[in-house]
Amino acid sequence: MRTLLSRRAVLGAGATVAIAAPALAFPDQPVRIVVPWNAGGATDVISRALATAMAQPLGQPVVVDNRPGANGAVGAQFVASARPDGHTLFVASAETHSVNPLVYSRLAYDPVAGFEPITVFASGPFALVVRSGLGADTLDAFIRLARSRPGQLTYASWGIGSTSQLAAASVIQNAGLDLLHVPFTGAAPAYTALVAAQVDAMFMNAGPAEGLARDGRVKILGIGSPERVPLLPAVPTLRELGMPLDAANWFALLSPARTPQDVVSRVATVAAEALRTPAVQEVFRAQGILPVGLPPVETRAFIAADRERLAPIVRSLNIRLD
Questions:
Q1: CATH code that applies to domain 7-124+248-317
Q2: Least enclosed by CB within 10 Å: which of 41, 61, 148, 162?
């Protein structure tokens, strides 16, 4: 199956979640959604919007608990060890469940056996951007410039083995380029370096890219989604530009393994309903995020397929983080 969804699939996926009334008294206490990243980032923002919209139909407060560290491993381990009753959920992403298993020989959590998939609730397309003044305002111009200066142009990422690096590596391999990787400790310092012209290019989240481009501080060359995104309707996709690549992160709700299936179904249903609310859709749009809403069985297959898709890229870069 494809690991990145078309707009038609994204907008219609929520309706495929079956409504099931749980046999257990769930929830009988506040529900906690663990976000394995710092507060204020895109993952945190969209998770809080989803949590707010889920509270009323669940009849309990839904709170976000930020537990950053070790590329998401701290939060993942916490949730994998939690009581499997649906009251502790995890916001997984490509980093925690596709990349980490490929770059770490030992993880404190099992990304497959340690969790029960609930729903892939969002897709975050990446934008390929270059610094202002580089002299390459189109993808073709950037490729020509990079080929004329092998090993001289640089690209930033928010860390070795990050989805930002892997997206850039896909373009580099596809176009036969030679660029120098400059990893940072997070997205914010990478963005700062790009704006300050300390690096030449990077793949960044669509929301921040739109803001920086609007202010004239970067130039967006293309978007990594199968179809154009509402936040950047004038920006062509990489596929439109002749590069058959998708570049995006995804976000999923998971629960600890052995969570009862009626509870999983209940959470999946409520999350799908929340994604259709105007308030959630507006927050997602402002971040350049697309609502998804895959049901549990498709969520499991999606994550497995994404890990398989990224494996050859990780191997070609020989990335090991332990």
A1: 3.40.190.150
A2: 148
d(CA 270, CA 202): 36
Residue 216 pLDDT more than 60?
yes
Confirm if 131 and 197 have CB atoms less than 8 A apart.
yes
Q: Is 35 left (phi over 0), alpha (psi -120 to 50) or beta?
A: beta
Q: What is the pLDDT of residues 167-179, one digit of tens each?
A: 999 999 999 999 9
Place of tokens 């030679």: 178
What is the value of pTM for the model shown?
A: 0.88
User: Which residues, 6 or more positions from 156, have their beta carbon under 8 angstroms from its beta carbon?
Assistant: 164, 182, 183, 184, 190, 193, 194, 199, 201, 202
The pLDDT mean for the chain works out to 92
**Domain topology for 126-223:** D-Maltodextrin-Binding Protein; domain 2 (3.40.190)
The proportion of the chain whose per-residue pLDDT surpasses 90, expressed as a percent, equals 85
Q: Which two tokens stand for residue 225?
A: 């989604």
20 or 157, which is more confident: 157
Each residue of 222-232: pLDDT tens digit? 999 999 999 99
List, in sequence order, the alpha helices (H) in the chain: 7-12, 42-58, 73-80, 94, 100-103, 139-148, 163-175, 187-195, 206-214, 261-275, 278-286, 296-317
Strand partners, 98: none
State the Cα–Cα distance between residues 211 and 207, nearest whole angstrom.
7
> Which residue in 193, 186, 127 sits closest to 162, CA to CA?
186
Residue-wise pLDDT for 90-138, tens only, equals: 999 999 999 999 999 899 999 999 999 999 999 999 999 999 999 999 9
Check for a shared fold between 7-124+248-317 and 126-223. Answer: yes
Please report, for the chain, the start and end positions of each structural domain, with discontinuous segments joined by +: 7-124+248-317, 126-223
